[in-house]
From TrEMBL:
Belongs to the phosphofructokinase type A (PFKA) family. ATP-dependent PFK group I subfamily. Prokaryotic clade 'B1' sub-subfamily. This is ATP-dependent 6-phosphofructokinase. Keywords: Allosteric enzyme, ATP-binding, Cytoplasm, Glycolysis, Kinase, Magnesium, Metal-binding, Nucleotide-binding, Transferase. GO terms for cellular component: 6-phosphofructokinase complex. The lineage of its organism: Bacteria, Pseudomonadati, Bacteroidota, Sphingobacteriia, Sphingobacteriales. Substrate binds at residues 130-132, 167, 174-176, 227, 250, 256-259. Catalyzes the phosphorylation of D-fructose 6-phosphate to fructose 1,6-bisphosphate by ATP, the first committing step of glycolysis. It comes from Mucilaginibacter oryzae. The active site is at residue 132. Its EC number is 2.7.1.11. Pathway: Carbohydrate degradation; glycolysis; D-glyceraldehyde 3-phosphate and glycerone phosphate from D-glucose: step 3/4. Mg(2+) binds at residue 106. Homotetramer.
Length: 327
């Protein structure tokens, strides 16, 4: 069995609340087991630029409550090339890193999988960290809960003003390929419609529903549009405005505020559990896997399987509910 003596930890791709609790758990679990830990700054970019630092207990003090990531993050194009990967490998070897914990989403895992196939002597363990909740093998990803709560708080506020003015709001939420935030926030806020990348919404049906709602004395309406929806928030709003003349229409794009903020209790616990499990999995000789939450247990999934978006499904009962509860 391979023996790990030094773990490198990095956060990559979009930051997500809960990454800091996870880094803290990785560092302290590794130190508890007599391993050394290296923090890699700005994700894979730090591996290529040799931007790394030894981490001790006090390196991760008082970070449980912080959003973002103390290690910083980046989307690193050079790591996609063979040359970039080779430099990253040589730098990691020179530091004595023999195990890597990579915290991020699908882009991060795609890089991790390629890297560990090319250089199998460095073990790699993935931790699902993305607000998009779009990885197989973990019911929830780090940051999704906090981001959804942030979105709900914002939409509740918009509902107040929408109601005061009898307005119809189109609200774009994050999720390039995933409607997870849109669906949960939509159900939680009683949105009149939720547009998701996972299914096509007929604009005619949407217009009819909004008109019916108006006739049924709805004083405001909220349509949540996930970033990755095929129609796009502006085109939908324009198409509806043409047909629903008596409604004053506004568009709000929530944007990056969805990624910030102190992690929720759920994300602090999840980050701690996943960081702890990732280090223990590396010590146990595992590689090319992701630790994830399944039925409240932390289990492992092959990285390749974790990336299998096609198998990822939004909860069918939530999808069914969304058409029924907001009449
Ligand atoms: O992957 C998380 C995410 O927040 C997506 O929902 C969004 O499309 C993307 O990141 C935005 O990325 P950037 O911060 O690079 O614009």
């Amino acid at each position: 069995m391979r023996k790990i003596s030094k773990i490198g930890v990095l956060t990559s791709g979009g930051d997500a609340p809960g990454m800091n609790p996870c880094i803290r758990a990785v560092v302290r679990t590794a130190l508890y087991n007599g391993l050394e830990v290296v923090g890699i700054r700005q994700g894979y970019k730090g591996l290529i630029d040799n931007d790394m630092m030894e981490m001790k207990h006090r390196s991760v003090s008082n970070i449980l409550n912080l959003g973002g990531t103390i290690l910083k993050t980046a989307r690193c194009l050079p790591f996609k090339t063979d040359e970039g990967m080779e430099i990253a490998y040589q730098n990691a070897k020179a530091r004595g890193i023999d195990g890597l914990v990579v915290i991020g989403g699908d882009g991060t895992f795609t890089g991790a999988l390629r890297f560990s196939r090319k250089y199998p002597d460095i073990a790699v363990m993935g931790v699902p960290g993305t607000i998009d909740n779009d990885l197989c093998g973990s019911t929830y990803t780090l940051g999704f809960d906090t981001a959804t709560n942030t979105v709900i708080e914002a939409i509740d506020k918009i509902r107040d003003t929408a109601d005061a003015h009898d307005r119809l709001f189109f609200i774009e939420v994050m999720g390039r390929d995933s409607g997870a935030i849109a669906l949960r926030a939509g159900i939680s806020c009683g949105a009149e419609a939720i547009l998701l990348p996972e299914r096509t919404t007929a604009i005619d049906d949407l217009i009819k529903n909004l008109k019916d709602g108006h006739m049924n004395k709805k004083s405001s309406s909220i349509v949540i549009v996930a970033e990755g929806d095929k129609n796009g928030v502006w085109d939908v709003a324009k198409a509806v405005q043409k047909e629903v003349k008596n409604y004053d229409i506004k568009v709000t794009i929530l944007g990056h505020l969805q990624r910030g903020g102190a992690p929720s209790s759920f994300d602090r616990i999840l980050g701690s559990r996943l960081g702890f499990a990732a280090v223990n999995a590396l010590i146990a000789g595992e590689s090319q896997k992701m630790v994830g939450l399944q039925a409240n247990q932390i289990l492992m999934t092959d990285l390749e399987q974790a990336l299998n978006h096609h198998e990822f499904k939004l909860e069918p009962d939530l999808l069914q509910m969304m058409d029924i509860l907001s009449i």
